[in-house]
Amino acid sequence: MSTNREASPEAGLEVDQQAVKDAETEDAADKVGEALNAQRFQMLEDIARELAGEVVFPTSFEAAIRLRKALQNSNLPIPRIASIVSVEPLVAAKLIHLANSVLYSPDGTPARDLQAAISRLGVKLVRTTALAIAMSQLMRSKEMAIFNEFTQALWAHTLKTAAAARILARSQTRINPDEAMLAGLVHDLGAFYMLYRAAQYPELRTRPETVKYLIIQWHEGIGVTLLHALGIPEDIVNATIDHEQPRAAPETVRTLADIVYVGNILAGTHFEWLYQDLDPDAGEAGIVRQKYADLLPEIETVTQEMQAIFA
């Protein structure tokens, strides 16, 4: 009996069947690739349509948006602010935690209730805290679980940038440190939003790596539009524009845009959370990190404090 499969009709049938299977597999792969590209473009088109009209924020952002709108008047009396905030128990608890942290109570004097916490922090920081909580809740939502590795890295980078911005503002400029912290906190909001939207497309959920490349190209512009929709002050929005575009680092940090740019570098790499395999101490990023090396231990300490507060 011959052992040459191609010499027998049966063997020939087996070869033909395998060839069909191979062709079907290749065709399926092509279809998946086409579907993947279609989902990428569909997501971008959907986002563009949303941004051109009324932005629909995730459910986790609704409370923060309501709170920010309710607190637009910075002259509201403390009892009234406390009454508004108390409707959101999580925000109220985080505010008390923040007010009693070493960031805002270095001598350990406790803020024993919500009014005391708000009085210490101020209405602007109350609004910032609400937004930080919304971002944290979005990151932990069930829909985002598929992108857990990215969201964890993005959140860690966000908090570290916010910490770096606060310290840079306080130590290098006369810019309000809390304003700088807000700028650092929201500088990558577009990336959060794109991850949230990507989770709604099957092909993108099964291939989370491909979402990186969409975020690299689009998150800055999308973020600017979202910040406008949230009513973030214009100077903070402008400070986030082109925060990752390579350029020579400023000789001295003077503006809010300088703070966000340098803070973003100090928080990781010049190409930030998407490129964690790059050496953060190489090239231009390394020069910046060396220049502000004396601030890095404090940035790390403040980052850990913020992680504890917004966990």
Automatic annotation (TrEMBL):
Pfam families: HDOD. Residues 1-27 are annotated as: Disordered. This is HDOD domain-containing protein. InterPro entries: HDOD, RNase_Y/CdgJ. Residues 57-246 form the HDOD domain. It comes from Candidatus Propionivibrio dominans.
